Amino acid sequence: MKKKEKKSTGKTYDKQQHNIMNEENQSHAADKKDNQQADAGTQETNTEDQPTDISVYQSKIDNLQKQLEETNEKFLRLFSEFDNYRKRVAKERAELTKTASESVITAMLPVLDDLERANTMDGTDGEQETQAKIEGVSLILNKFKSILRQKGVEEITAIGEDFNTDYHDAITHIPAEKKEQRGKVVEEVKKGYTLNGKVIRYASVIVAN
Question: How many CB atoms lie within 10 A of CB 185?
Fold first, then answer.
């Protein structure tokens, strides 16, 4: 009688162990299923988010492309404007070079008129006409110098001045007759001139040493 009870008890224990194992297996299966569903949900979420990320990147690319096109258009416009400006300046400079001396020549035309009138005097009327011609040429010379001064042309002072390489060009040297003449200009062979302070022709001089 006792043996049967032991055997019955053993069967009951085995049954309980089997039930526990089934419950654990079911629990593991449920957890595995939940994990699979969670992974599937994550994949679906990633799959749903991916198009959104690509669209954002595409939008940024489109904006950058638009900015690049606008910048390139501005550059081309500025380059075209600068090129037009350069051509216009070059044309104006060429025209200015051609007409730069127009005002000077126009101012000297009256002097030319006076010289032509003086040239018509042949001196056949004697000493009086010759004297008048000399005086006329003197007036024309003074008139011409006045015009040059108005245009900024000035004569360089030479005779009696200390020799200065900034204004004078010594063509020869001679012994000084007096001590105070040493290093000074004693004779002017060709006048020198400045234009608004700039030397345009050096005075050719003879210097005493």
Answer: 22
